[in-house]
Automatic annotation (TrEMBL):
The lineage of its organism: Eukaryota, Viridiplantae, Streptophyta, Embryophyta, Tracheophyta. PROSITE patterns: SWIB_MDM2 (PS51925). Residues 66-145 form the DM2 domain. PANTHER family: SWI/SNF-RELATED MATRIX-ASSOCIATED ACTIN-DEPENDENT REGULATOR OF CHROMATIN SUBFAMILY D. It comes from Artemisia annua. This is SWIB/MDM2 domain superfamily protein. It comes from the Eukaryota.
Length: 148
């Protein structure tokens, strides 16, 4: 008979121990004797296998897609960029932010607002102020659709 006690213990039922002289007290109930008392310390075996390729696979450099793909730009954007005709949107945003930082065009009271100079007004549709989250939307019309 086993008793779950949170650790491994083994109990067995046996006949009563060798009778010792006791005055007229005989019991027919079996006694439990511990055979072994030890905590379960079983270690889990973890086997890690690594797959190795027989030949190294040469990685192919993928052509840029989406926002990182160079697109033709409008004449206004071309003038702002200094003559570049194709550029990815991500690069345009970097150039615009560099121009904003160089010329200190952020509003000192609210850094999220950009005060447009003459160069930025040509790109942002003659607006005097632009929120920094609006920049990506305002440059979209300056990118021509690519023919597939």
């Amino acid at each position: 008979m086993s008793l779950p006690l949170g650790f491994c213990s083994t109990f067995t039922t046996t006949s009563p121990p060798q009778p010792q002289p006791q005055p007229s007290l005989k019991s027919s109930v079996p006694f439990l004797q511990t055979v072994s008392f030890r905590p379960c310390l079983k270690k889990k075996k973890v086997v890690v296998t690594y797959a190795t390729a027989s030949e190294p696979v040469a990685e192919k450099k993928r052509a840029p897609r989406g926002f990182s793909k160079p697109r033709p730009v409008s004449p206004e954007m071309k003038e702002f960029l200094g003559g570049r005709t194709e550029i990815p949107r991500t690069e345009v945003l970097k150039v615009i932010w560099a121009h904003i930082k160089e010329n200190n065009l952020q509003d000192p009271a609210n850094k999220r607002v950009i005060v447009c100079d003459e160069k930025l007004k040509k790109i942002f549709g003659q607006r005097d102020q632009v929120g920094f989250l609006e920049i990506a939307g305002l440059i979209s019309p300056h990118f021509k659709k690519a023919e597939n």
